[in-house]
Amino acid sequence: MKKKLYPIAITIAGSDSGGGAGIEADLKTFAALGVHGVVALTSVTAQNTYQVTGIHDLPPEMVARQIITVWEDIGIDAGKTGMLSNSEIIRAVAETVSKLGFPLVVDPVMIAKSGAPLLRPEAMNALIKYMVPIATVITPNKHEAEKITGMKINNFEDARKAAKYIVEELGATAAIVKGGHIEVGEESIDIMYYNGKFYEFRAPRIVDGCTHGTGCSFSAAIAVELAKGRDIVKAVKTAKKFITMAIKYGVKVGRGACPVNPMAWIEIPAMKYHVIESVKEALKIIIENQKLFNKYIPETGSNLVMAIDPRYAETINDVAGVKGRIVRYGDGVKIVGPVEFGASSHMARLVLTAMKYDPSIRSAMNLKYDEKLVERAEKKGYIVVYIDRRNEPEEVRLVEGRSIPWIMETAFKKVKRVPDIIYDTGDVGKEAMIRVLGKTPVEVVYKALSIIRE
Ligand SMILES: Cc1ncc(COP(=O)(O)OP(=O)(O)O)c(N)n1
Ligand SMILES: Cc1ncsc1CCOP(=O)(O)O
């Protein structure tokens, strides 16, 4: 069968005016995972990260009409439901989806993270009676699974029983009981029952991540993978990876539970590509001027680095640099290895610390200390800071990796901003060094060239 270039996924769900959950989270998820998303809106909510102040349900015929209208022209390969709000909407959706017959992920939304009810109490039975049997996959959390099954879920054994019950007694094809609030440990474990077997999906638990919209985005990601024709197990595996990243790199806005970030899935790889290209572009300028740089490459070698966006940069693995560094070679220089993330330790930590003070400073390079370079930098009006490494406290010296952050912190304290240049004249076993900082590698290299040139 010929593969479709644009698989279509539908979200049948409510709108979250805060942009974190509901159709807003679903459409971001659809786009990030590469399908065309279409919508049947069920309800408009006035909502932010900590409260829901209003709910306005659409007429059930209008919900059904949206699904049918999209189907007739664009087609639907798979769908998901979110907030269905009342029993009339549930019936209209169940009837329409059953007629059209596409795979459906049911996220049995009942209560918002903020605590507001999103399903009327009168609709609980309709949800169990009409939605569960047509679910290809249903994705309840602990509370939702308890409501659907009438069981108490206190551990993974209970979660297994509930998942099996939802499939064997209530008629879903597969049921995933999400482990977010069950036996809280180092991992977040979801339990799925499907085709007579149990499956576990594990991911490291993100302690301080953003969770508003988690259920929406997770179920939307499963729907995407089903729309692409993946089997249920593969679809859930991808969705688990996807949601872990969306929680970890959440959108830190609002006073309540901050929203997940489905765009992280594509934004981070795109950024990494851009960062690598930026370092490479600047390395070309170094090679074009290698005779000038030759004299100013330190014995330990030089590195040129750039970090990804400060919203995402955490460790040296988020900073790209030259593997094996830049070294002196004949009367020029040699770029020893490829540009890679995690290739630099010293300059990467310098930039990570600088970004805490000024997120726009994402790049740096080190040069051999020469007083002429310092003089020229001062003459040019750069902010230049001298650090006396003999003042490095004992507790900093003794801890691997603490010196560079200390140098940056001390320099910042002196001039109340991230300087253009931080230099030191060395200490026992420590080579004297000039560090040039800037927004981009090209800016850093031109800054370096401007003080190297006589
Ligand atoms: C319109 C709308 N739909 C669904 C939700 C639920 O989202 P959230 O409160 O973050 O809970 P989960 O996504 O984890 O189930 C909502 N708040 N609004
Ligand atoms: C600044 C510096 N200090 C010791 S080695 C060195 C050069 C660059 O090191 P890295 O490749 O770890 O950034």
At a glance:
The chain has 454 residues and is of the alpha/beta class.
Low-confidence blocks of residues: none
Q: Helix count?
A: 15
Please report the distance between the alpha carbons of the first and last residues: 67 Å
Q: How many E-type strands?
A: 18
Number of structural domains = 2
The largest sheet has its strands arranged as: 3-2-1-4-5-6-7-8-9
What is the CATH superfamily classification of the largest domain? Answer: Ribokinase
| Ligands and ions found | ligand LCLJCK34, 4-methyl-5-hydroxyethylthiazole phosphate
Main sheet characteristics = 9 strands, mixed
- Shape, per Cα inertia axes: elongated
In CATH terms, what is the fold-level topology of the largest domain?
Answer: UDP-N-acetylmuramoyl-L-alanine:D-glutamate ligase
Radius of gyration equals 28 Å
Pfam families: Phos_pyr_kin, ThiN
EC number: 2.5.1.3, 2.7.1.49, 2.7.4.7
Enzyme class: transferase
Family: In the N-terminal section; belongs to the ThiD family.
Distinctive features:
binds ligand LCLJCK34; 18 strands; seven-stranded mixed beta sheet; 15 helices; 2 domains; L-fuculose-1-phosphate Aldolase; UDP-N-acetylmuramoyl-L-alanine:D-glutamate ligase; elongated; alpha/beta; 39% helix; 454 residues; binds 4-methyl-5-hydroxyethylthiazole phosphate; nine-stranded mixed beta sheet
